[in-house]
Amino acid sequence: MRNVLFLILSLVFTVSSSHADNEKKLSKKKLIEQADYYFFKENFPKALELYEKILINYPKNHYVQYHQYVAHHLTNGRGTDLTGLQEFEKNEGQTDKFYNYWLGRIHYGRYEFELAEEHFKAFLALDIYKTKEIIRESKQRLKRAIKAKEFYLSPNEFEVELLSYPINSEYADVSPAFFSDHDELLFVSSRPDVVNQEIAKNSYCVFHTKKNGKVWGTPSSLKSIGPLEKNCNKIEVVNEDGRLFIYNGELNDLFYSEPQGDDWSKPIEFDTDLQNRKIGSHFFINDRENLIFFSSKSANGRLDLYQSHKDPQTHKWEDPFPVLGGVNSKYDEDSPFLSHDGNTLYFSSNRSESVGGFDIYKSEWDNNLQEWGKPVNMGFPINTTDDELNFELNEDNISGFISSNRLHGRGDFDIYHFHKQGKVLAQGTVFEKETGKALTNIQLDFHPQKYKDETFRSYTSDDGSFSVEILQEEDFIVEFSINGQVIYKESVISKHEELKKTFSKDFHITVPDQLDKKTDFIALYDTSKPEAAYEKVNMLGSKFRTGEKAMLKNVYFDLHSAHLKNESQDVLETLFITMKDNSTLKIEIGGHTDSTGTADSNNQLSKARAESVKKYLVSKGIESNRITTKGYGSSQPLASNDDEADGRELNRRIEVIVMN
Fold it and tell me: What is the reported pTM?
């Protein structure tokens, strides 16, 4: 009896364990499907969150590891170590046809434009099925990578430096405004306000800090000002009187505050006459406080720059009008700043000439035409492939500050200082240390220590010599490369004799006995392996779809009938949402049966079932001309019709085929 009881308990435990294992597998599968959904919708933060959750219980799931890796490097891991890349290259490089696409995007975000170019070219060269959308997009990304490479390899005379902690934080730090000979700084930040803990999480506050020698003190928020909404996070300090201007979003007007000991006064309305002028929140006011530039939406829905002038006779502000000349375009213009002499207008724009999102442009005033001239991109390193805003130029006209979310910052947006730095001609010869032989075709990249994303590049000629203009009196890291592989590094300072514009330096470097073999990114993917025949319904409208066919699982009909059961609601809703979100998607709905019944009846039944699915979609608002139907009967079985489970059951199905 005891043995029988033990056997029963063992069976119960085994069945329970098996059930628990199956539940766990289903839960894991569902989580991966959810994470993949967000991943291929390019909501990488959400996908990353779910992948990391899965890896807690399944730390060795290589598929999840790979997608988590990609999502990480396209979000908060941008610019971090790529050590794990080699492992994924050996596996996913062969099995994931989008591997080169993802790596192109990752390297572009790291400012490694040559590698990005190689990967996008390799992806486009693969002789595999790719959607028109992703081909078009990849070609655009390739063009941007080539353009960015040329842009970054033509640095101008400016030097850019990230302001140190505690000014920049892990939060957004923007709109710098200096005064008192630059010993005091006001700026706007989304960091938590230690003065007022009740301030909303996504609000911005104005912070103040003083410099002690070369070190900035801990910023403190101004008790009398704020919080500010994100769209109103612009401040301006007017140099003649040191007044701090802010924009009041509720009253749509400018207010100002003045220093009072260790604090600032409660904001006072600047001029009641401005209330009816519809001044924008991203504003600039000049030193004399009689001219305002601001950005506001125009009739075309884009941001344009406007201006308003105060009449010296009536002391009234004129109605704002678009800035004259070629400043405004069919793109967005924002964040205006007028030079102290009034001759140069600086602003941010995402126009087609931009290498990133928003770049800084400048336009000179034309006295003859009485309008602003053609805008000129300020170039690298003022601009990057990311966004640059809040350009502020000091009175010396050679230095200033910008806000940018560029690579290697501390947080969201950071504050950077820029200044003009003279250049010097660096020249010399590169020798092999062991033999003394002059080395040809060696790539030299001079990276300033203060901003290592900047590159001054040269190549050695037939006699091993090189020549390139670099910043003078600057600390550099010099990288020496052969075929893109860095083989040696050395630190130098570009000092030169007074009155001479030449920095002479020979290098003696060690060349490895054997260089790493250059990876053929096109050959990585194994084209001999067939692609998956079916995919998820919600991927049909995606640029990442791997084929053109999806099987609708869990679509149920009454026996020998085309009447849809209620249990089919979820999967049909997914198909509807996919059609709704992809308005140009056209599909064929194909009905399939098993082999029971006659060929004619099966063809009629499969066609009727396909029509039922179409009727459902049309009733939800999908245009009828986007859907065709076809009944295939039992002519295309997926499995043997000899058995019900995994046989006839699989053959009774609805398939969706992309037609465009």
Answer: 0.86
